[in-house]
Amino acid sequence: MTEATFAPSRVAPLLRSPVSADRDRKEPPLPSPARSQTPPPSPSAPARDSGPLAAARVAVLIPCLNEEQTIAGVLDDFRRAVPGAELIVIDNASCDRTAEVAALSGATVLEEKRRGKGNAVRKALRSIDAEAYLLVDGDGTYPAGEAQRLLRPVLEGEADVVIGGRLRDSRSDFRLLNRLGNRLFRALVNLMFGARVSDLLTGYRAMSREFVKRAPVLSTGFELETELTILALERGFRTVEVPVRLASRPDGSRSKIRLFGDGMRILNAMFTLLRDYRPLTFFGGAGLAAMLLGLAPGLFVTWEFMHTGAVRIPTAVLAVGLEIVGVVLVIAGVLLTTLARRFREIDYQLAGLDAELRGLRREAAERDTRERR
After folding, report:
1. pLDDT digits (tens, 9 = 90+) for 92-116
2. Are residues 228 and 314 both part of a single domain?
3. In a domain, 53, yes or no
4. Domain that holds residue 301
5. Statement: residue 17 has pLDDT above 60
6. 16 assigned to some structural domain
7. Sign of CA dihedral 167, 170, 174, 180
8. Beta strand 132-135 with 108-111: parallel, antiparallel or unpaired?
9. Is the pLDDT of residue 163 over 60?
10. CA distance linking residue 225 with residue 202, whole number of Å
11. pLDDT reported for residue 50
């Protein structure tokens, strides 16, 4: 993937009210700074161009919980890496000065009192309107220099989701248990959903407006990344992975992940999404397992009856009950799969209507602008 570049541009504020998500689209675009006023880039600075990245409205979303020590540096790094982007810090009920430091550093600060990364990110996705969203942690472990490579496929229409894969870079600073857990969950997701994801739990990803508006994010905690990945796979959004290097946390900064508690939440989210998006796999698999279990007592009862003429009633009831449960589960999986397909068709039609309405609003806004002139 070629190295992406950005040009500075003036960006309209991205905060919007839930009632009018597209209100700010009615304003005429602000002019970009004249090319003659832009100093030539230094050899160490990223080159700037006038491609789709220059005029795009990009929101950098940074959920934070007690990141007073690192948030100022993160904001400075991404301000240089993505000129013109709106930097949004979501303060997740921090006990330190995270929100104050972020505001002093020029970021827009949102507050989410309910603890949990999923709650914080969902608040931002509902409050911010942009063409592309860049999600990154506020602990300073993700390289801002890779932001351009993540955003470019989204803004050029080549992908809906771009994942910053940490496991594809051997220099990433991973704790052993985190690396093993990530590989275990990745293997399960790839097996259950037929995917080829290399990093399931990365917190560094770019997303298109269409994905953000159509993906129902319901997670409350660190299972958020699992949900975002599976939603992109199951809803047919184009997904690309870009290798990034995970840096070590600075001294004094502490990880908020609880290995056992959050691991169980991630595992629960995986099976919940499997049930919701692939009910035939979930219920059909459980039904086949029940029928296989019922074969053992069933074969034993049959063998005993053929040789002795006696029937063990409890064993026979157990065998028949397991077979009935298995059949019911398979039928439930078939019916729920049919319903899920119908809901996907409805969702697709609603997305088409939403795009058509947005186009009509833009045409009306442009017509009003021409009439005023």
Report:
1. 999 999 999 999 999 999 999 999 9
2. no
3. yes
4. 278-372
5. no
6. no
7. positive
8. unpaired
9. yes
10. 7
11. 35
For residue range 181-193, what is the model confidence (pLDDT) as tens digits?
A: 888 888 888 888 8
Query: pTM higher than 0.90 for the full model?
Result: no
CA atoms of 109 and 124, how far apart (whole Å): 10
Number of domains the chain contains: 2
Widest Cα–Cα separation across the chain: 99
Last-in-domain residue among 276, 307, 331: 276
Nearest CA among 205, 163, 202 for reference residue 185: 202
Q: What is the pLDDT of residue 281?
A: 92
Examine the domain organization and report whether 250 and 356 are in the same domain: no
As a whole number, mean pLDDT of residues 219-238 equals: 90
Measure the CA–CA gap between 49 and 3, rounded to whole angstroms: 12
Query: Residue 266 domain-assigned?
Result: yes
| For residue 147, pLDDT beyond 60 | yes
Say whether both 178 and 298 belong to one domain. Answer: no
Evaluate whether 271 touches 282 at the Cβ level (below 8 Å): yes
Neighbour count for residue 166 (Cβ, 10 Å): 25
pLDDT at 16: 44
Q: Identify the residue whose tokens are 């999986």.
A: 333
Cross-strand pairs, 164? 242
Domain boundary among 276, 302, 328: 276
Does residue 9 lie in a domain region?
no
